Amino acid sequence: MMYxxxxxxxxxxxxxxxxxxxxxxxxxxxxxxxxxxTQRVRRAAAKLAGLEGADPLLLDYAALLHDIGRAxxxxxxxKTCHAELGAEISRQILAELGIENAGFVDAVCDCVRQHRFxxxxxxxxxxxxxxxxxxxxxxxxxxxxxxxxxxxxxGRIGAKVHNSAELAMNxxxxxxxxxxxREYLVKLRRLPEKMLTENGRKMGRRRLLLMQQFFDSxxxxxxxxxxxx
Length: 229
Prior knowledge:
With 229 residues, the protein is an all-alpha fold. The longest helix is centred in the last third of the chain and has 26 residues. Helix 6 packs parallel to helix 7 and helix 7 runs parallel beside helix 12. It has two domains: 121 residues, Hypothetical protein af1432, CATH 1.10.3210.10; 89 residues, Methane Monooxygenase Hydroxylase, Chain G, domain 1 (Up-down Bundle).
């Protein structure tokens, strides 16, 4: 996106205000989706923006706002789509900040709306920036940090520490039979191939290897198969 020098300065000057608004909104959000997650996504988006040639300023805004609707989705156990709600809230916040560039506002809100794209038969993120944000968010569900977040979420809802692949695949999300392993089997292990940028896929595959090794070891330990005679 093209900016005049004055517009770019204004947008950069509003970032500290936006950071404060986002921090307040996410203050009561559980740790797996709290401000530190948003900041990691922000850093990943900045890295991918440089590698892919995307707009770093637009992505700075979109990454900060991407989970702004998350609290409501967690409160009603997934009935609300936090991305759709987040796009609406983002538009309100950008107006509060005095940002009048309609193209910029629309692009940021589109990134927020599309970062959780899951609907079959519908077009996913189309702009490069929306694709970068999508990948940056998914990267935080992979690797060591992805494991930490999955186990944190399982513990928060009272799910199991671990269960077998068969039991995991036949359990329901948000139930006492749920587990981090179920999240890995059902969703996380498929994320790298669903990413939308070349560099995102490379990073995702690298992080997935660590998760595969971890769960292989966990399965052995739970059966006692790793113990020496």
